[in-house]
Design a protein that fits this description.
The chain is built from 19 helices and 7 strands. The protein is an alpha/beta fold. Helix 9 packs across helix 10. The longest helix has 35 residues.
Length: 411
């Protein structure tokens, strides 16, 4: 066989081809454009790459146009972790020398010697990969929105505590359209105290509020006109301008999060696995899309449920050496899937009597809250693997037989 290694960069890439004996057959320096990709494909074809016998490729990334070009056909592309590649480099030289052509050669040799120890990129469908893009972008937008909201809250604490008190009763607080519209109307506490009922009503209506406006107006006027400590007028005005600049960023983040959520709601139900995922308690469209984005729809990606659990970071790991042995949670995992798993486990406590009973049992056995949720996620994702492999929807009685019996007895 022939193996290919590619050391990628922003503008150029280095390519190396080796045979079974480790002999360097060819090396190229290509550009990151259509012309460079054509040179790469022609080089692979020159050394026997075909639809029936594709040359495997190792590269230190799983994204980008170069990877998209390489994934055409049945060619296997291996995304090698850069830290793993660095360890392999030490096997060939201890002088710590490094070069881009040398790194490409190391990547090719990784496949030659240890291809069985690495997994190729999953063969997900185009729809599955599109949902992954949207779900991850929506998750990133939520994290960005929360970060900006925290910055705004910290700034308001310095000069505008009345706003924080006024918006504390609303879900999502500063991210609510009403809160952002009121801050635009009155960027300082002095201006907020002078707002009339008409101005407050107009601000709430501009934000889209339709019910309970009169009661909210009276509550807001009372909060804004209460006695609060103030910064000097010039300082307060400057802080108000800083707040408005930050508010523009928060507005954009909220709009992006809403638009991406709509895109996910439009794309996810079209996927064949959507019905199975949504049958699980605690999974709505957004959270189910995040789970699908990370596990993909390639049924051969994980050899068994244990592999998926390890990938999600829900199963424990044992560290044993000599007389010492410890069982701990996993640190190396898919962080996005692990984050979705905690939300899934928490939401399932109300949606499933069996899941709630399982969680309570773990707590009674001495688990901390996070450990009990992780154990519940571990069980749920194992059941998800089974359902996806067999095309079955979630069955509460089969998933938690003990919990269903306990709930029936309690009733």
């Amino acid at each position: 066989m022939i193996y290919c290694g590619i050391d990628w960069a922003e503008r150029t890439h280095d390519v190396a081809l080796v045979d079974d004996t480790g002999q360097l057959l060819a090396k190229r320096h290509i550009t990151d454009d259509a012309a460079g990709y054509k040179v790469l494909l022609e080089l692979l074809a020159e050394y026997g790459d075909s639809e029936e016998n594709p040359i495997p490729v190792a590269i230190e990334t799983s994204r980008g146009l170069l990877v998209a070009v390489l994934r055409t056909g049945k060619r296997k592309v291996f995304a090698i972790n850069p830290m793993a590649a660095a360890r392999y480099r030490d096997r060939h030289s201890v002088s710590r020398k490094k070069s881009d052509p040398g790194d490409a050669l190391v990547l090719a040799n990784i496949l030659r010697t240890d291809m069985h120890a690495h997994r190729p990129l999953p063969d997900d469908s185009d729809l599955g990969r599109a949902i992954a893009v949207l779900a991850r972008a929506q998750q990133d937008s939520l994290w960005n929105r929360q970060q900006l909201a925290n910055q705004l809250r910290s700034l308001l604490r310095e000069y505008y505590p009345a706003a924080l008190a006024a918006f504390a009763v609303w879900t999502n607080g500063l991210c609510r359209p009403e809160a952002r519209e009121l801050l635009k109307t009155a960027p300082t506490p002095a201006r907020a105290a002078r707002l009339t009922r008409t101005q407050l009503q107009a601000a709430l209506k501009r934000a889209g509020r339709q019910r309970g406006i009169e009661a909210e107006v009276e509550r807001l006027r009372e909060v804004f006109r209460d006695e609060w400590a103030h910064q000097p007028p010039l300082v307060e005005g400057a802080l108000g301008k800083q707040m408005l600049a930050l508010l523009i960023q928060l507005d954009a983040a909220c709009t992006a999060a809403d638009q991406l959520a709509e895109a996910v709601e439009e794309a996810f139900p079209q996927h064949p696995d959507a019905e199975i995922l949504l049958s699980f308690p605690g999974l709505g469209i957004q959270l189910a899309a995040r789970v699908l984005a990370e596990i993909g729809d390639d049924r051969t990606r994980f050899a068994d449920a244990r592999g998926l659990k390890a990938y999600a970071g829900s199963s424990p790991i044992t560290r044993a050496s000599g007389k010492k042995s410890a069982i701990t949670r996993r640190w190396v995992k898919n962080d996005r899937l692990n984050h979705a798993g905690y939300l899934w486990a928490f939401a399932s406590l109300r949606a499933s009597t069996g899941a709630n009973a399982h969680y309570r049992r773990r707590r009674e056995q001495g688990d901390w809250r996070a450990a009990a949720q992780r154990n519940l996620f571990n069980r749920m994702i194992g059941q998800l693997y089974h359902c996806l492999q067999h095309g079955q929807a979630f069955d509460e009685a089969a998933a938690f037989p003990t919990g269903v019996e306990e709930a029936a007895q309690a009733a």
